[in-house]
Amino acid sequence: MTLLFKRMKQPVVLGCIVAAVLPAFVVPASGQKAFRLNHLVDSVLTAKYWRADIDTCYITRPRTKWTLMGRLNVSGARIKNEGMQHGQHFASELQADYKSTLCAGVSYLGMSASFALNPAKMLGKYRDYELNFRSYGKTFGYDIAYQDAHNFKGWHEAGGVRQDITTTEDMFKLRTLNVSAYYVFNHHRFSYPAALAHSYIQRRSAGSFLLAASGQGQHGEVKGEQTETGDGRQPMSFKLTNVAIGAGYAYNYVPGKEWLLHLSVLPTYIVYNKSTLTMSDTRIPLHHRFPDGIITTRAAVVKQFGSNKFAGISAVYNFTNIGDEESLAIRNQKWLTRIYFGFRL
After folding, report:
1. What is the spatial distance between Cα 227 and Cα 233, in angstroms, rounded to a whole number?
2. Which of 87, 204, 228, 345 is spaced 20 to 30 Å from 283 by Cα?
3. Torsion of CA 96, 220, 336, 73, to 10 degrees
4. pLDDT band for position 23 (cuts 50, 70, 90)
5. Is the torsion defined by CA of 81, 318, 166, 228 positive or negative?
6. Which residues, listed in sequence order, are joined to residue 33 by a DSSP beta bridge?
7. Burial class (CB in 10 A: 0-12, 13-18, 19+), 79
8. Helix, coil or strand: residue 45
9. Alpha-carbon distance 187 to 140, whole Å?
10. For range 193-221, the mean pLDDT
11. pLDDT tens for each residue of 212-221
12. Does 171 or 155 have the greater pLDDT score?
């Protein structure tokens, strides 16, 4: 018996060790499938990420897969009306309260997600609502901004009398949707995302002609208010629907190894318009004429710090002009500025 035990002792001990250690290194069947799927997805995304059709003398991909960013976003809007009613000239200008948000974002192989907080809204000091979607690709990209605003400050002038205006939620409502899209011709050497999304790096200066399309939908309403003397605020509402197409130019200037300056201007001309203004019971049509249009301007300054850190500021500005001052003209301005810092892993 002693001899048999001695002969069996080594294999048995070895088997016990293998049985104890193996579960720590072997993934269960379900986990193994998930691991293989994740590995496959990562391989496909990585291959697509590096397969970009670009001139690497001008544009390169970051060498890392992950990008983390922190941003401060500040946005604003302004609207101005000017025209004639009952033979009298009138004009008004209103500016919405500024919106400031703190944002954290993460990008993996060019795919991004972000989370934003508005401190003023959390404290109950900001009641307006705004939503922004932005996608900047090397060939195609777009900006979509929706704003539901109630709090404005400005002035109104009619018949030579001017008065200041401060609106509240129960007095004025303005809902605006702005859309701007572009197509880049020279995407082999010029990179929009290098300036605005940081999924590429611009190594040499380059520019490109662009095709552009823009659209705007807007609905505003001012509630009437009467006093005991019969005076008061007149009810007013207006609706705007515009579609515009055009072309523009963008340029990335690289003055040094660690700097990038970007500027693009995309003028588009309105090809479809359906807009009206109603004051009291009077309906004033908004006549479309050339060269009414929508202009979108983008600008950025980016500073690289070594190989994996960067900081900068970017801005998107939309200006819409439509109508005739002899009847009714409406001018809209919408802008968003971002100050950011990021690093790559």
Report:
1. 9
2. 228
3. 60
4. very low
5. positive
6. none
7. buried
8. helix
9. 9
10. 93
11. 999 999 998 8
12. 155
Distance between CA atoms of 216 and 320, rounded to whole angstroms? Answer: 9
| Candidate from 70-74, 180-184, 286-290, 294-298 with smallest mean pLDDT | 286-290
Cα–Cα dist 52/199, whole Å: 11
Token couple for 9 = 């002792």
Angle made by CA atoms 93, 94, 95, in degrees to the nearest 5? 130
pLDDT in tens, 161-176: 898 988 877 788 889 9
Cβ atoms of 278 and 237 within 8 Å: the answer is yes
Task: Report phi then psi at 229, rounded to 5.
Answer: -85, -5
CB of 183 closer than 8 Å to CB of 210? yes
Nearest to 191 by CA among 110, 246, 134, 250: 250
Q: What are phi and psi of 297, to 5 degrees?
A: -120, 135
Q: What is the DSSP string of 315-327?
A: EEEEEEEEEETTT
The owner of tokens 């950025």 is: 300
The model's confidence at residue 225, banded by pLDDT at 50, 70 and 90, is low
User: What distance in Å separates the CA atoms of residue 232 and residue 30, rounded to the nearest whole number?
Assistant: 72
- What's the one-letter identity of residue 5? F
Has residue 149 got a pLDDT over 60?
Answer: yes
Q: If pLDDT is split at 50, 70 and 90, which confidence band does 21 have? A: very low
C-alpha distances (whole Å) from 104 to each of 70, 180, 329 are: 5, 24, 40
Q: List Cα–Cα distances, 256 to 94, 121, 167, 178, in angstroms.
A: 42, 41, 48, 35
Residue in 294, 271, 276 with CA at minimum distance from that of residue 145: 294
Q: Which residues contact 65 (CB under 8 A, 6 or more apart)?
A: 46, 49, 108, 109, 345
